[in-house]
Design brief:
heterodimer; A: 523 residues; alpha/beta; 8-stranded mixed beta sheet; 19% strand; B: mainly beta; 4-stranded antiparallel beta sheet
Chain lengths: 523, 70
């Protein structure tokens, strides 16, 4: 629309410059994206945010081209698009790299823009979603600057940001170096299979340094890093990634001075699924489907699993109980028998920190046979990873409730819930299903070790061993522990949801009294 | 045609179906053993068990193809 009035020329130039920015980068690069069934940076922002909610900042930033008379003729836009928008009505900061502008090269990045987005989130304590699709540093920058510099961004917000506002990072293309850190240095990192990669150095750098030839996906594709733990979740499309980011944020507060939002719950908080009473097989060698149990205890459809491909013997999910957001941790006997591996410990440590930071009460559904043993496990540093986890649990200050579904053994078993917590007041709020067993050592191996001579000397060693095991199994009945109040109660599995939904009100009231940043000591 | 994979590193403890047998989604084809636990390998779809790639007692690694359904 043509402008009129005294400032028509200036307003007209503003319109023209804004329109040019809306058109993004080169038509060729935009076509290339579309041909590969991918979104442009602006389409990604639109898919991330509530419709029409984007308020852009820095639209005019870039490198202007001027004629001989100093008139504006066009510009190369910044390879970053930033601004504010809403997710389910709540304000967030969004920052998207735009690979249609000179391939997202840092030469045209105007780095101040994305740093401004980070600083806005820091200043006003808003969640930030980083859609990273910009190339790393370019050697051509050195020529442009005429000198090199010590790496680092002095105007980056302090590292404490991750202790104050939710951060989501999505790799939308190849992310090397700083770009990779912006993805994995978030609370929730997502990659898209086939179209995004994350690495410390890309294939040409690896070829030069190590002499190995690898494709981008072989080196740092979504499946590589979903299993390495560098990112949390891998998905099949960009739209899926953006929806997942929205979903992740729905469980979290805007910042640590707030509580997670509670949503309306249509699921009966006292719903008792009768099949749960038989969910655990009597035969201890048989496994069960812990995902199904988690889904049955949470509000219908409320479970979001984080890092499903990493450290799989521990399952970590966000879920809701009568509308209240909680973190749930469960052991999966189908992966390494449920044993605590180094990866599982690192995953659970990070999850405990995440829940603690954003005030999500923790539900622990335990079936823990113990720390993973064996040469591989020792070499993987399982003990130090587990020790860090133990300290993370003890340093947390959110309320915990633990239900022992089956096994609770050894050092890993002791990580059922904090006994002291970060402020020295943890209540051991622990329950057990009738299938629960616990101890410092499992009966089978324990009997074989302690009664070695007696078993060997018996007329029928096998029969004597079984007899001793039967005797000890009776002693480890959870009812005997309940007599001594070693657990609060042994409960009917089908009644678990009602117990959790009743507890979560008290848990949320406690977190409401303990808002703000958390301070943790060394691990 | 779908491939059934071992979920965990361990040994093949028991094979419950034979080639040519019709199976339904969720049927247990074989049981692997790992960390003193029985981990079933289940049919991912209805079909006919075409090939078994392992025998009882074999060691398997996570992700190994252990059977093929047609």
């Amino acid at each position: 629309m043509a402008r009129s009035g005294e400032w028509a020329d200036e307003l007209g130039e503003m319109d023209a410059r804004r329109q040019a920015a809306r058109e993004q980068g080169s038509a060729e690069l935009l076509d290339k994206l579309r041909q590969r069934d991918r979104l442009t940076a602006r389409e990604r922002i639109a898919a991330l945010l509530d419709e029409g909610s984007f308020r852009e900042f820095g639209m005019l930033a870039g490198k202007g081209d001027y004629g001989a008379q100093g008139d504006f003729e066009g510009s190369t836009r910044s390879a970053h698009i930033i601004g504010l928008g809403r997710v389910d009505g709540r304000k967030i900061v969004a920052a998207a790299g735009d690979s249609s502008v000179r391939g997202g090269s840092s030469e045209v990045a105007v780095a101040d823009k994305w740093i401004y987005a980070e600083r806005y989130a820091w200043e006003f304590k808003l969640p930030i979603v980083r859609l990273v699709a910009t190339a790393g540093g370019s050697v051509k920058l050195i020529e442009k600057m005429g000198h090199t510099k010590i790496p680092g961004y002095p105007s980056m917000p302090p590292a404490q940001m991750s202790g104050q506002v939710p951060i989501v990072g999505i790799a939308m293309g190849a992310c090397a170096g700083l770009g990779a850190v912006r993805v994995c240095g978030s609370h929730f990192a997502i990659m898209v299979r086939g179209s995004s990669q994350v690495f410390a150095g890309g294939p040409p750098v690896v070829k030069r340094a190590l002499g190995t030839t690898l494709s981008k996906d072989e080196l740092g594709g979504a499946d590589v890093h979903a299993a390495s733990g560098v990112i949390n979740n891998a998905v099949d499309s960009e739209r899926e990634a953006l929806q997942l980011a929205r979903r992740f944020l729905s469980y979290l507060p805007q910042n640590v001075w707030q509580q997670p939002p509670r949503s309306a719950c249509e699921d009966d908080p006292t719903r008792a699924d009768a099949w749960l009473n038989d969910a655990i097989p009597h035969d201890r060698r048989k496994v069960f489907n812990v995902h199904k149990i988690v889904a049955a205890l949470a509000d219908a459809g409320s479970v979001l699993e984080l890092s499903p491909r990493y450290g799989g013997s521990v399952v970590t999910v966000f879920a809701r109980l009568n509308g209240a957001a909680v973190g749930m941790i469960a052991n999966n006997p189908r992966v390494m028998g449920g044993a605590m591996t180094a990866d599982a410990a690192a995953k659970m440590e990070r999850f405990v920190d995440l829940c603690d930071t954003f005030h999500l009460p923790i539900v622990h559904l335990q079936d823990q046979p113990g720390l993973m043993v064996g040469e591989q496990a020792e070499r993987a540093g399982t003990l130090s990873a587990a020790t860090r986890l133990l300290l993370a649990i003890e340093q947390s200050t959110v309320p915990w409730i633990a239900i022992v579904l089956r096994r609770c053994f050894g050092l890993a078993g002791s990580m059922i819930s904090p006994l002291h917590d970060g402020i020295g007041s943890a209540l051991p709020h622990r329950f057990a299903w009738p299938s629960a067993r616990w101890g410092s050592i499992p009966i089978e191996g324990g009997v074989a070790a302690a009664y070695k001579r007696e078993i060997e000397a018996a007329a029928d060693p096998e029969a004597r061993r079984e007899e001793l095991e039967r005797y000890y199994h009776k002693l480890e009945s959870p009812f005997r522990t309940a007599e001594r109040f070693g657990v609060v109660d042994v409960i009917e599995p089908a009644s678990t949801r009602a117990l959790l939904c009743d507890w979560v009100d008290d848990a949320c009231a406690k977190t409401a009294r303990n808002l703000g940043p958390k301070y943790r000591t060394m691990r | 045609m779908s491939e059934l994979k071992a979920e965990v590193t361990g040994t093949v403890w028991k094979i419950l179906c034979s080639p040519g047998q019709t199976v339904k989604q969720g049927d247990t084809i074989m049981i692997t053993e790992s960390m003193k636990m029985e981990i079933p390998v289940e049919a991912v779809s209805d079909g006919v068990l075409e090939t078994l790639h392992v025998q009882e007692g074999d060691s398997v690694r996570e992700g190994d193809t252990v059977a093929t359904l047609a």
